[in-house]
């Protein structure tokens, strides 16, 4: 393949620059009704200018100390998630969720099973042997997502400037789908907001 002449390269570069120049960082702080930070909430930003999320993996939810770890995992549509058993007892992982129904029959220590999550939505996990075990897989089509940290905060870079929709998911939210939505306009300089869950 022939190399492009120098003037052609220079004429292409300015066309590529505005996209990067108009990407901003969005910071969201999530509070509970009493003002305490909300951890393990999932913030997703939907933008018509954003590319579709692509799985990069690997993704895993361990069964460890009779619990799903992490308790909440966020993955792009099409991601394959492995469920390794790190306990000395057997587990039977399942979900009846609309986004993905599955049933991983009993398996023991250091064995694993995998599931591909091909539809956006929320998948609640359970163990047929240990009723106390619960977890969630959040499957998203947007690449702009993050889980809130111990301070209830996320910082999401490379958000296209312009109109977006902020979506917050948490099992603590009593709205339909355990989700809050908020329209926003992201300026090139960045955007910050606080979302408070209502009782």
From TrEMBL:
Record-linked SUPFAM superfamilies: Cupredoxins
Signal listed as a keyword: yes
InterPro entries membership: Cupredoxin, ET_Amicyanin
Residues of the signal peptide: 1-23
Transmembrane region(s): none
Keywords: Signal
Domain of life, source organism: Bacteria
The protein's name: Methylamine utilization protein
The species this protein was found in: Sphingomonas cynarae
């Amino acid at each position: 393949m022939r190399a492009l002449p120098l003037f052609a390269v220079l004429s292409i570069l300015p066309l590529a620059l505005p996209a990067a120049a108009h990407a901003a960082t969005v910071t969201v702080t999530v509070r509970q009704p009493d003002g305490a930070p909300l951890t393990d909430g999932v913030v997703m930003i939907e933008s018509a200018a954003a590319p579709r999320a692509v799985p990069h993996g690997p993704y895993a939810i361990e069964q460890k100390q009779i619990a799903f770890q992490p308790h909440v995992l966020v993955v792009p549509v099409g991601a394959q998630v492995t469920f390794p058993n790190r306990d000395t007892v057997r587990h039977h992982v399942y979900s009846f969720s609309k986004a993905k129904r599955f049933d991983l029959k009993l398996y023991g220590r250091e064995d694993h099973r995998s599931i591909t999550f091909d539809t956006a939505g929320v998948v609640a996990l359970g163990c047929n042997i240990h009723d106390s075990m619960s977890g969630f897989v959040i499957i998203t089509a947007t690449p702009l997502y993050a889980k809130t940290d111990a301070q209830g905060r996320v910082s999401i870079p490379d958000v296209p400037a312009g109109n977006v929709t902020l979506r917050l998911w948490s099992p603590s939210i009593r709205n339909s789908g355990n989700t809050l939505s908020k329209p926003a306009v992201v300026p090139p300089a960045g955007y910050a907001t606080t979302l408070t869950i209502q009782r």
